[in-house]
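Lab notebook, design round three. We kept the backbone fixed and only want residue identities now. Task for the bench partner: fill in a sequence for the structure below.
Input structure tokens:
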């Protein structure tokens, strides 16, 4: 009887963990999609919802005519808001083929990392769970890569 009770406790706690895990994964994916929509939809409300105010966003844009990357461009939270407002006046062209992909790379109980692929390139999003809400705290991005290596490609 004692073994049965222990087994039932383990089963129920494992089921609860799986549900929490799925809830977190869904929230992380929602935040990553919302991040792209800050720019695709020029929606600053999404920035306030999904970005932490201490955000650090840094990236490199490929300059085609110079065949080189720009110097790193840093955007704190307020600059992300300004960039989103820029897209109100000059919307990002979109159609059925516009990239909008989210790859969740790892999820832990407090931190996570996701990769988004958008029209401007790729972004790696470092996220943190604050007050039971997932926020993007750090972003590293670049224009669409010329090549990619993954260790599993060997």
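Proposed sequence:
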């Amino acid at each position: 009887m004692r073994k049965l009770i222990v087994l039932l406790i383990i089963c129920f706690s494992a089921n609860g963990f799986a549900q929490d895990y799925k809830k977190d994964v869904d929230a992380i994916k929602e935040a990553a999609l919302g991040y792209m929509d800050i720019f695709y939809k020029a929606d600053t409300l999404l920035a306030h919802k999904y970005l932490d105010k201490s955000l650090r966003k840094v990236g490199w844009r490929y300059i085609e005519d110079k065949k080189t990357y720009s110097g790193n461009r840093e955007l704190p939270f307020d600059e992300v808001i300004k960039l989103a407002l820029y897209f109100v006046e000059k919307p990002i062209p979109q159609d059925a083929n516009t990239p909008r992909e989210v790859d969740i790379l790892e999820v832990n109980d407090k931190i996570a990392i996701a990769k988004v692929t958008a029209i401007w390139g790729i972004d790696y999003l470092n996220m943190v769970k604050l007050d039971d809400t997932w926020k993007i705290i750090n972003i590293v991005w670049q224009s669409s890569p010329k090549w990619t290596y993954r260790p599993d490609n060997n």
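Keep this in mind before ordering anything: The beta strands are 51-60, 62-63, 68-69, 73-76, 100-107, 111-118, 121-130, 133-142.
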